[in-house]
Amino acid sequence: PRYYIGIRYEYTDNGMGLRITYNYSSGTETDILIAKVNGTAINKSNGDTLEILLTSFTLKAINLTTDMGVDYILDVEVEGVFVGVQSTYYWMHLNEFAKFFTANWPDFLFREIMWLFIIAFSITLFNMMPLPIFDGDRILKELVNWIFGENYKSKKKKKDKLIYKGIDTECKLTEYRVERIESVKIYLKDNLREDQNGEIILGEDNYELVDKIGDGYNDTVSVNLPENTKLKENTC
């Protein structure tokens, strides 16, 4: 027999319940999770489904029990009779070992692969943001170089003022794409060099640009002071 039950439903991903999504009698969208049908727990892998119940010739009503223990009674109507063989699709195991995974294993595996792809694709898109901390900054630079060429001028000068703390001779610059340093000047705290107004200019062999964070661009100046240098802390 063919029964009209007046609802639209779908099974949950784990096959241990069904969700009523639409009530044709009231014409409303619903979201009711059913755990039992006529007192039998739903288990799609074991064949305990609503479709099995609908094959009964003496069916008059269906008792649906939610996961919260609330019962709903559905009066069924016979729409007609089907004579023949109907087909359905489900996964079959190839050997005895595959029985332990049940028929839901392929669907579970497909969902896991799908979510892995979605997560990996989302991380890739996030990493493509044109910010210096992401790879998108490099890719954007390569695209600009490819479209406009590398011989465009976008350089500017900037002066950084750093305070010597007496322990670290590597000075982090405020810009991270530094190509050249014109000069390094040390302003003595107590003005010990009156002939130069307390100013010492380091030679080019006493400092160098280094790539401290390893991104391919110079961002730090390393000052090589002689061992007999006596600079006080807070010297600029």
In short:
With 236 residues, the chain is α+β, with helices and mostly antiparallel strands. It has three domains: 2-80, Pdz3 Domain (Roll), CATH 2.30.42; 97-148; 157-236, no CATH class. Helix content is 17%, strand content 25%.
Comma- or semicolon-separated keywords:
236 residues, alpha+beta, Pdz3 Domain, 3 domains, 6-stranded antiparallel beta sheet, 3-stranded antiparallel beta sheet, 3 helices, 13 strands, rod-shaped
Word description of this protein:
This protein is α+β, with helices and mostly antiparallel strands. Helices cover 17% and strands 25% of the residues. The protein has 3 domains: 2-80, Roll (Pdz3 Domain), CATH 2.30.42; 97-148; 157-236, no CATH class. Strands 2, 3, 4, 5, 6 and 7 form a 6-stranded antiparallel beta sheet that branches. A 3-stranded antiparallel beta sheet has the order 9-13-12, with no helix packed on it. A hairpin with a 6-residue loop joins strand 2 and strand 3. It is rod-shaped and about 105 Å long. The chain starts with a strand and ends in a 13-residue tail after the last strand.
Question: Which helices and strands occur, and which strands form pairs?
Answer:
Blueprint: E1 2-4, E2 7-11, E3 18-23, E4 28-37, E5 40-41, H1 50-53, E6 61-66, E7 71-75, E8 77-80, H2 105-127, H3 136-148, E9 170-172, E10 184-187, E11 199-202, E12 207-210, E13 220-223
Antiparallel strand pairs: 1-8, 2-3, 3-4, 4-5, 4-6, 6-7, 9-13, 10-11, 12-13
